[in-house]
Amino acid sequence: MKSLLEIRRDLHRIPELGFQEVKTNAYLLEQIHSLPQERLKIVTWKTGIVVRVEGTNATKTIGWRTDIDGLPISEATDLPFKSEHADKMHACGHDVHMTVALGLLKSLVENPVNDHVVILFQPAEEGPGGALPMREWLKLEQPDLVPDQIFAFHIAPEYPVGTVATRPGLLFANTSELFIDLVGKEGHAAFPHQARDMSIAAATLLLQLQTIISRSINPMDPAVVTIGKMTSGTVQNIISGQARLEGTIRTMDARTMSTIKEKIESFCRATEMAFDCDIHIDYGSSYYQVKNETAITNEFLAFAEQDKKTTAILCDAAMTGEDFGYFLQEIPGMLFWAGVDSPFGLHHAKLNPNEAVIDYLVPFVDAYIRKISC
User: Fold this and answer.
1) Residue range 263-297, pLDDT digits in tens
2) Given the residues 67, 322, 323, 341, the one annotated as active site
3) What is the model's pTM?
4) Exposed/middle/buried for 150, CB within 10 Å: 0-12, 13-18, 19+?
5) SS3 for 235?
6) Which end of the chain is more exposed for a tag (fewer CB within 10 A), N or C?
């Protein structure tokens, strides 16, 4: 296997979108096959990979999940290993995630632990969502690879290297994309009575959607409905016959997500009647909340607190989304933040994680896996 620094930089050069990670898949398999194969079981699913390291005296299976896709972002760094794929970038740190997973795999192959360890290289975390179909495929086709416990991490630009942060219970929100298309009738500005104006319909609907949180949701129940993009019209003297709203929904309770979607649909039906138009709703990628198992998370924090190289933080929950929540929905486990000390945040075109996190995190995670496998 190449050095972990080389691997991270190689992966950073070839970001690919969800379920299109063909080069990434081939590169990962090349590194995996460079290791001794005696204790390995390797299975592929779409562009994802599942690798099991056979334990020496297994009583359970420990899972480690990493995501492998990039984002549709044009990289704005001056790095010598910047993205070679136009308008694509590892702007969420998945190149670092994969590198840590390979480093962990190498250590486990060279020095196996008692229990089986399954490492899941999951595609499409950024969309349209790979965790849920991968979980269901494992249950149906590879039940021996389903972990009894599962873990993951995500880089955190705001923390320095050597810091891990998490909390028992809810860590990340339920999230859903939101796309609303309004179809009316285009017309000349001089004859508004002959058209059905979707600019006005969309603007009215947008304002109505902003009342959902303030008037339909308990103020003690955190939730967000944001419309980040609105498009309508072609030129200044033509009444628009089409409009589109694009946004996001985020809640701390799964039931609240259902309530918000019901209200959105009722507002859309009312808008159809009021403006004599057709409205189509697409919720895009919807992710289940990341809810850490309490006992496992407390055990992890206790382990981190006794590690002299680590600063452990009990952090707040966040409105961020992560499809790892679908694994935690059925498998006890936890996700934690790992600091990478970057002035630029997640999904920023200039994100540049401090690569020292790799040499810190691989032995840290390895030691933790060994502890819980005793």
Assistant:
1) 999 999 999 999 999 999 999 989 999 999 999 99
2) 67
3) 0.93
4) buried
5) coil
6) C
